[in-house]
Amino acid sequence: MSIIDVYNINGEKVSQLELAESIFNVPVKQSVLHEVVTMQLACRRAGSASVKHRSDVKGSTRKLYKQKGTGRARRGDIKSPLLRGGGSIFGPDPRSYSYKVPKKIRKQALKMALSSKIQTNNLLVLDKFELEKARTKGFTSVLDNLKVKKALIITENVNENLELSSRNVPGIKVMRYEGLNVYDILKYEKLILLETSIKGIEGRLTA
Fold it and tell me: Rounded to an integer, what distance in angstroms lies between the CA atom of residue 203 and that of residue 118?
C-alpha cells in the first residue's frame, strides 16, 4: 500500500492515508494515455460543420440559356457550384467523430493517470474542504495556503459552496469522483482529492 499525507485547508498535515497499490502505483505508459485522451477529445468534437449542396440551394431548375450558339460556357441551372450563390460540391456535412476504446484500456489509463500524479508529487489529499460561504476570496485563500494555482478538485458529494466559490477562478475545476477522467487529470497541474472521495474512486476502479 502507498502511504500519503493528508492535509487540512490551512496546509497543515493532519494524518496519513494508505492508497491501493493496484490503482495509485501502476507503471505509466504514454501510448495508453495518448489513446484514451485522443478518444475523449474526438468524442467532444461537435461535428456540426455543414454546407448547402446543389440540391439544398433555393432556385429555379431551368437552363439559364441554350446549350449552343452563344459562344459562352455551357450552363445548367442557377444552382450550379460554378456560379455565385450555387451549391457547394465537397463541403462538410454533420457527422460524429466519436469512437470507443475498450473499457479495460480506459480503466487502466485512469489508473496510470492517477499514478503519474503521485510519481510527480502532484497529488494532494485533503481531509475536507468546507467553506462557510460561497465566496471566491475564501476559496483563493485556501489555494494560497496549499500553494496551488492550477488544480482539479475531486469531491464525493455535492459541495455547493465549493463549486460556487471556484467557478470564477481560472485554472481550477471541481468535479465529483464519478466524472473523473484521464484528460482532466492530465490537463491540470495538481490533483486534489478529498479523503472521502478516495473510497469511491477505488470502488469504481476495482469493480
Answer: 19
**Contact present, 25 and 115 (Cβ < 8 Å):** yes
- pLDDT tens per residue across span 20-37: 888 998 999 999 999 999
Residue 7 vs residues 128, 129, 137, 182, 190: alpha-carbon distances, Å: 9, 10, 20, 24, 14
Predicted TM-score (pTM) of the model is 0.82
Domain that holds residue 30: 2-45+97-206
Return the CATH number at 20.
Answer: 3.40.1370.10
Q: Please, what's the largest Cα pairwise distance for the chain? A: 94
The count of domains in the chain is 1
DSSP state of 71: S
| Closest residue by Cα to residue 153 from 123, 108, 118 | 123
